[in-house]
Write a structure and sequence with these properties.
The chain is mainly alpha-helical. It contains 16 helices and no strands. α3 runs antiparallel to α15 and α7 packs across α13.
Length: 410
């Protein structure tokens, strides 16, 4: 891969996650403060990510993999997405906002797989090359948060009162236009569909060929645990920014980028940890990190105990890398060459789709139950729910999953 192509792929990844991180992190705060959405409506808005993840395989399987170059589909989706982001920027009521965000996430979630496809198509050794490209996505998410908090101040108390968070949609709409146009200059990535005589079935699209892996008791336990642990994960995505704003933390969106910085660090540490302690212990550390994170949120404050909140944010690297990346490695090793793609698709559908869909709904219900008359929440009680749930899932996984050796290939 030449230097020019490498730069293109890095910029593509940067913009892809700059766009997502530029509006999704502050979505709950924007909806609650600027268009008076209820906790249930906020949960409904966040659940569009899950519906997008559920529908994404159909977009990829029926269109991108069969008829058009991947980079062209990527460009079209981001250009249409830019229009929807602009409409969200102009919206002042949730009833109008919801169809736009639903449509946007249905278009955006497939692009996560498309940027990977463009990248992998240019690599001779993805295991060594991909992480160096993907890290620019994390940097894009970080830069978005830094701009919102430290450059524009949109998430300051005065900024929120003035309704400036709506500018996150304008900023990402502009970035989406740029990425949409830029995508047409990316290396050509032709479709890799089956031959014309073969029909693509729903079974192919949803990765149902990988269902045979459920005969392996360990994999079945891992699969169910993946769905369950994504329920408390949804609390973080949906509630973390509104929580930090309500308790009075300054520049909350910028400080939340500590999670992405730690993600980079623990991604580098993962190969050592995985090979030294094995898959089961790595997953358990991730699950317990969720438990600890929510306890820190429950009992920390913005005074002398603000360090507890910051540590809770920084635990994101362990929570995400040690669970999701380890899970991808485990799934890849269990599936074998024939069902690698199907198995990864099935896990994504289960976690970002089913697990988080349930989690967003539960988070909305619980948040609403602890809503005070002044619009604030009893956050210490709210955070104990995902903490307890994560602990239960950790214990069940520890008891039911039998230790097995998985070779990590870096």
């Amino acid at each position: 891969m030449g230097l020019g192509v490498r730069i293109q792929l890095c910029l593509m990844m940067f913009l892809e996650f700059f766009i997502w991180g530029g509006w999704f992190v502050t979505l709950g705060t924007f909806l609650g403060n600027n268009i008076n959405a209820t906790d249930g409506e906020i949960a409904l808005a966040f659940s569009t990510q899950s519906w997008g993840a559920i529908i994404a395989p159909f977009v990829i399987g029926l269109i991108a993999d069969r008829y058009f170059n991947v980079e062209r589909i990527l460009g079209v989706l981001h250009l249409i997405g830019a229009g929807l982001l602009f409409l969200m920027y102009k919206t002042t009521s949730f009833d109008v906002f919801y169809p736009y965000v639903l449509g946007y996430m249905i278009l955006y979630m497939p692009t996560l797989a498309l940027v990977n496809s463009v990248s992998f198509n240019q690599m001779t050794d993805p295991a060594k090359e991909f992480s160096l490209i993907r890290v620019f996505g994390t940097l894009g998410w970080i830069i978005a948060g830094v701009l919102i908090s430290y450059f524009f101040g949109w998430d300051s108390n005065s900024g929120i009162m003035e309704g400036l968070l709506k500018n996150t949609f304008l900023m990402t709409s502009i970035a989406s236009i740029f990425l949409g146009i830029f995508s047409f200059t990316l290396p050509k990535t032709p479709p890799k569909a089956k031959s014309a005589g073969e029909k693509l079935t729903t079974r192919d699209i949803l990765g149902l060929d990988a269902l045979g892996l459920f005969k392996d008791r360990n994999f079945l336990i891992f699969f169910i645990s993946s769905i369950l642990i994504c329920i408390p994960l949804a609390f973080y995505y949906q509630n973390a920014n509104p929580f930090l704003v309500e308790v009075g933390m300054e520049s909350p969106t910028g400080k939340m980028t500590l999670g992405q910085l730690s993600e980079i660090l623990f991604l580098l540490l993962l190969p050592y940890f995985f090979s030294r302690f094995g898959f089961k212990k790595t997953i358990m550390v991730a699950m317990l990190a969720w438990f600890v994170r929510y306890l820190l949120f429950a009992y920390g404050d913005v005074g002398e105990l603000e360090f507890m909140l910051l540590i809770g944010i920084a635990l994101h690297g362990i929570c995400y890398d040690f669970f999701f990346v380890s899970g991808q490695i485990y799934t890849d090793s269990k599936a074998g060459p024939k069902y690698k793609s199907s198995a990864q698709g099935l896990i994504t559908l289960a976690t970002y789709g089913v697990g988080m869909l349930i989690g967003f709904w539960i988070a909305g219900e619980i948040s609403n139950n602890y809503l005070l008359s002044d619009g604030k929440h009893i956050w210490d009680s709210i955070w104990l729910y995902p903490a307890g749930f994560a602990l239960v899932v950790s214990i069940l996984f520890a008891l039911l999953f039998k230790t097995e050796k998985i070779d990590y290939q870096s």
